[in-house]
Each structure stands twice: as structure tokens, then as C-alpha cells.
Specification:
It is a single chain. The chain is of the alpha/beta class. It is 46% helix and 11% strand. The relative contact order is 0.13. Belongs to the DapA family. GO terms for molecular function: 4-hydroxy-tetrahydrodipicolinate synthase activity.
Amino acid sequence: MAIKWEGVMPAVTTKFDENDELDLNTFEKNINAQLEAGVSGIILGGTLGEASTLTPKEKENLVKKTLEVVNGKVPVIINIAEQSTKDAIQVAQDAFAWGAQGLMLLPPMRYKATDRETVVYLKEIAKSTSLPIMIYNNPVDYKIEVSLEMFEELLAECDNIEAVKESTRDISNVIRLKNKFGDRLKVLCGVDTLALESMVSGADGWVAGLVAAYPEETVAIYKLVKAGELKEALKIYSWFMPLLELDISPQLVQNIKLAEVATGLGTENVRAPRLQLEGAERKRVLTIIDDAMAKRPTLVDYKSL
């Protein structure tokens, strides 16, 4: 399946039951809600989320379950965030064997690679697979930035590097990327609190977090922006902002899962070492969610745009 790298692509949370096993029934309910809302793809194994706690078998089960639920409607993409080039290549090969249609690829985890090491790492993985790839560029959280010059080298040698999840927090970088590479490199916003601004600046799509709890509102913002209905998009985005800010936190998984409980699309079960929120922080997050739910907007018919 070819990937268009546009629209809203949820970085979905991983669902667990009370016994710390995959909760595939709740997971299926959430994926169906994403599809009904009109998302353009499903991204599994969020790197700032709980992907690092999953076993290879759990990753395989998630991919195969998602493919079953999606049934060809949208592409299924899995993250690669490994410690070594060898392991990353193995995940790429496994993903292909499991039936995934694309990869989201980070620079090396934990080790702060040089620019040369980063480029070689990304090239070797890209050249090991035929699957299309979106590079995740997040120097704020991962301390490595893939510069325009590095992208130029990568794109010259790796036809299957097709997109970037742009998370530098620098809105003008969207314009730099589009000016330099045009449609050769699709740009998707990777920071929820900068999504509308990024799309107005030319981003092709949005790799979203709070979409896991609010799929319709997220897709509506994208559709309205692309249709030029900025006033209507801004109304939803302004309501959404306190919730979107829950995504830029080390506890983003716990925050998003509490929001999923509020909308009936998940549970708050997390995998250790993460723990459910408690005390003042739990009260603060629930207050934000409860306030948003009380003011949840009525959406226009965005699907017809």
C-alpha cells in the first residue's frame, strides 16, 4: 500500500488490561473510532510512550491486530526506536514480515550520535527495507537534530525516505523543509500544540497524540485548515489547547489515557515503570479534561470538506 503521508495519523496508545497484558478489545474499539473520524493512517509503538516496554511478540500482535481491524482502509506504520543498527534493521524486517506498510524511524536512541553517525544509521536501515519511511526529527526530546543538509544526503540515496515528523518546535522549519524539498519530502507536524500553525505554514499532515481520545476534533481541525476555514478551525483548536498541552509532558501517556477514559475510548492502565497519576497532578489533569468535556464543541460536517 502506497502511503500519501498527509492528513491525521494517530500515534495511538498501547492498551493494557489489569494483568499487564495487551487489551486488544479496547484497542480495537479505539482504532475503529479513529477510522470513523477519518484518519489517514495508524502509527503503533509511540517512542515517547510505551513502545520500549513491548516485547517483539507484543509488537507483532499489535501490528497484526491493527491490520485486521483496519482491513486495508489506511496504512499501518510502526516505530523503530532501537539501541543498535542491527536491532533496528531486524525490526524493519519483522515489520515487513508482519504486514506493516510503513516505518517511522528515529535516530539512535540514548547514544547522542554525531551527524555522520546519524546519517549512516538512517541510511543503513532505509536500505535494508522496501517499506516507506518517515523520519522522526525531535531534537528537543532525543537531542539529535536531522538538519536540512542531512536530509539532502538521505533523500539523494534513499528513495523510500518520504516524510518527516517535524518536532523541532520551530514553525519556520516547516517552511524551510517545503522550500528546499517540495513534495519530495512530506512534512507532518509532530507537536500537538503547534499543529494548526504548522499546517497553515504548509505541513502536509499531523502525527497527533490527543487524537487517541478526541479523533473527530483532531481530524476536523486538519480538514478545516486545508479547506481554508481557519476561523472555524481556530475555534476548535482554542478549545482543544489545554488538552493538547497534556501531550508535551513526560507523563503524556498517563494524561492521554485519562482523556481516553473520559471519552470512552480507553482505560488508564499503563505499564511499569509508568504509574497512574495520583494526588495533585491527577487532580490537575482531570480538571483540564472535565472542563474540556463540559465545553466540548459541536462540530461542523467536516467529512464533506
